[in-house]
Amino acid sequence: MNQPTAQHTVFFVSDGTGITAETFGNSILAQFSVKARHVRRPFVDNGEKARQLVREINETGQREGLRPIVFATLVNREVLNVVRQECQGLVLDMFGTFIAPLEDELNIKSNHRVGRFSDIAKSQEYHDRIEAINYSLAHDDGQSAKNLDSADVILVGVSRCGKTPTSLYLAMQHGIKAANYPLIPEDFDRGAMPSLLVPHKKKCFGLTIDPERLAQVRNERRPGSKYADLMNCHYEVREAETMMKKAGISWLSSTHKSIEEIATTILRDIRPDRLMY
Amino acid sequence: MNQPTAQHTVFFVSDGTGITAETFGNSILAQFSVKARHVRRPFVDNGEKARQLVREINETGQREGLRPIVFATLVNREVLNVVRQECQGLVLDMFGTFIAPLEDELNIKSNHRVGRFSDIAKSQEYHDRIEAINYSLAHDDGQSAKNLDSADVILVGVSRCGKTPTSLYLAMQHGIKAANYPLIPEDFDRGAMPSLLVPHKKKCFGLTIDPERLAQVRNERRPGSKYADLMNCHYEVREAETMMKKAGISWLSSTHKSIEEIATTILRDIRPDRLMY
């Protein structure tokens, strides 16, 4: 009955935020060439809400004539029981599946605690993340050269090559204090790295970008300007790459990469210690 | 042999960024009262790297006398085979486990495509996220009242109650254009919502915070100031809450909540449409 062209509805169901269910579920769905409608249902944390949700799932299935797919990260036993017994969707019980083998391996029982993200809020790690966000904001676009000593990473590159989103992501996801510093035409005229960066060369990481893509992005900002002109973009990118090569700074192109991939590469190359914690 | 007090090493292994393996693995580990050493190994995308990784895992197990736990999101078949055949850790194959039942349900084969996050980089959704980050940065701390029309959400609350990290998270994770606007003593003297916000009341969401926590946070910034004074923090929080109540704005306390939880609550309350996509 299931035809690959029909559109399934996928539910991400959790007694917490549902972020884990969604991240993981989307990774799995990316392995299939199907279009799906996504519905996230967070904070389903009692039997009443569970029954309401199950009604919604079952009605969706009947209306669409296709069994919904349900990615569930449920810890609350009452909710889990309602979903297991009454839900007519294909339930992929993400916690249940892996908790049993881990209980065997660790030789202890799991504690069925809901809401990892609320435990996080009290931790040192969380405090560090918030501090890192504040640091990265204060050191965006070279606006403060103070405290570059305490930066974990300094991103360099021409204006609009992706430094700001990447440094905020490094801060938010990994608690990395990421400053960023633009390379500007004056630096190219001088033919040398900004002198402020020289003592910190080891923690500098460069971003570059395809000049055509750069011109496009800059034109959204300042249409028709010299700043956005394609020839000028070619010039700036070439000069920046030459400068980074000369200085021996690692760099990558952001053109076809997501901030997640760029951030992971930077961690691996500049702060491999942060891959272990 | 496994004693709950011993420290296991947990590997997060992926041929992509490893973010999915880590998010999901940490959610599962949060169900156990164990301390573990975490090691993330991203971009393991060929047999050579796989064999090197498996050597590292097996040596860790021998050295520590405890079988490592391996959360794997592997799509590359060559890598998966090396890990399945040679790894002596407890391999929790997160993709393999759920892809088979989905293949049956969808009646199509999965495509074994590596790197969801690199597909993302080309999508409209990704472009919208980057736009939202730029918007949220430009509308941080009430610095621009222009374009509040195009805000999806406007966060309000006293200085340092968590507005900035929350709006950046909403932008980065959900592509939500989140402006934020501080409530300041002048607003309390006037006894009315800032007039700029009045036409946008429906998309305003308030954050509040425990006054003692606020005084602590502000003291890190400006020690001994009136701004950080506990009595003043009590006053500002009370006035802000009264104002939000009067204006009929939903709000929550950020004191014991992570930005992930706050963001999910805001989405559910202000933009439930964004839970479906």
TrEMBL record, chains A, B:
Signal peptide: none annotated. Transmembrane segments: none annotated. GO terms for molecular function: kinase activity. Keywords: Kinase, Nucleotide-binding, Serine/threonine-protein kinase, Transferase. It catalyses: [pyruvate, water dikinase]-phosphate + phosphate + H(+) = [pyruvate, water dikinase] + diphosphate; [pyruvate, water dikinase] + ADP = [pyruvate, water dikinase]-phosphate + AMP + H(+). ADP binds at residues 157-164. Its EC number is 2.7.11.33, 2.7.4.28. It comes from the Bacteria. InterPro entries: Kinase-pyrophosphorylase, PSRP. Bifunctional serine/threonine kinase and phosphorylase involved in the regulation of the phosphoenolpyruvate synthase (PEPS) by catalyzing its phosphorylation/dephosphorylation. Belongs to the pyruvate, phosphate/water dikinase regulatory protein family. PSRP subfamily. NCBIfam families: PRK05339.1. This is Putative phosphoenolpyruvate synthase regulatory protein. It comes from Roseateles amylovorans.
